Amino acid sequence: MAxxxxxxxxxxxxxxxALLGNAELTLLYKASVHGYQASAFHERxxxxxxxxxxxYNHSGYVFGGYTSVDYAQSGQQIKDKExxxxxxxxxxxxxxxxxSGRYARNDDAGMPNFxxxxxxxxxxxxxxxxxxxYDAVSFNFNSAKLYGDNNELTECEVYKVKQILQVSVKEKxxxxxxxxxxxKEELIEMIRNYKPLxxxxxxxxxxxxxPVGAGKSSFFNSINSIFMGHVTSKxxxxxxxxxxxxxxxxxxxxxxxxxxxxxxxLCDTMGLEEQSGxxxxxxxxxxxxxxxxxxxYKFNPTAPFKPDEQKMFKPASLQxxxxxxxxVIDATKISLMSNKLEEKLNSIRxxxxxxxxxxxxxxxxxxxxxxxxxxxLRDTYASSYIKSKVEEVSSRLGVPVSCVLxxxxxxxxxxxxxxxxxxxxxxxxxxxxxANDFLDDDPI
Length: 444
Description:
18 strands; 6-stranded antiparallel sheet
């Protein structure tokens, strides 16, 4: 018997596999072929392990949900912290993670549901049905964004999800890094004793640029945590769909209980978004690089910053300018970056190149990208999958592979962790070295 054809385009398949952390999809069930009846669904999908439901409607939306727990008609509420809803229509997929995982779905004999809020092939019909839950809401979603408020389905498919491990933990590391307490202390001392090459600069300024949610503010929080000796959250960070950072912020880091200022300042910007008139206005970049934008300036996505006349004709001091630029990129989403966002980053890179400012790419969330790294951060530089992501970031951003630094920010931890600290401090050390390269070449 010939295999049943999938309705997923190759582009959308790649986007979904990237959301799943590098997976292989095998079609189990297709409603137009096997029927919209619950019995047909369970005959083909029960006890198959993790599955991805993909629905298509008359408005062109491709949407659905993932569950890591078998369908088994147990009649039980299913706990699944990995469950999520998704929608693909334009650009980067919308991904809505389950809130707590406690009520990810009800494993009954009917057609699939997520959180007992969203039912697919409801009552054995080609429709999706939203049920309002007043007590326990597992997924916060907007039906207009998720499926365009069009509940009539043209197709419904279910795929078996097989995770593909990309790394042998016994591989020879592709980049040398020592993750010991001694090395951590050496890095801390190097950073404490760092001195900018120019006497007129007491603290180098490092500008962080990147898409919404990539981890710019979290990187500052993580570095601040290391020097404070415990996890902190001074800068606002999180997982909102739009940038939580709305102001230009300059964050000096102080050392421990003595609160002695360290020789660098991390500058945070509003997140980049692919739409025009949203997120950081790329025309603001030039003003930031040249030191004209003050701390706490509130960004306006539709109108660029305009310095007053006095500043317009008087160059900022070298101390006020940016000395190193860091692109902050989410390792789990680099494959999903839209062409529009890539074009924005290319435009920004051209501005930075014209000023001769060195650039580094900080690749965050490496633990979420690779299962082996999630188990042990020491395997970051032994992971062929992380290496492939580093190469992809290098290719898409136009920076050398040697300038792409994988890290994990502190996000949900309550205590500091040695391997995380070493990755973060090693990245910061490279930023300070690059800043000195800029100061060494500066004609002033």
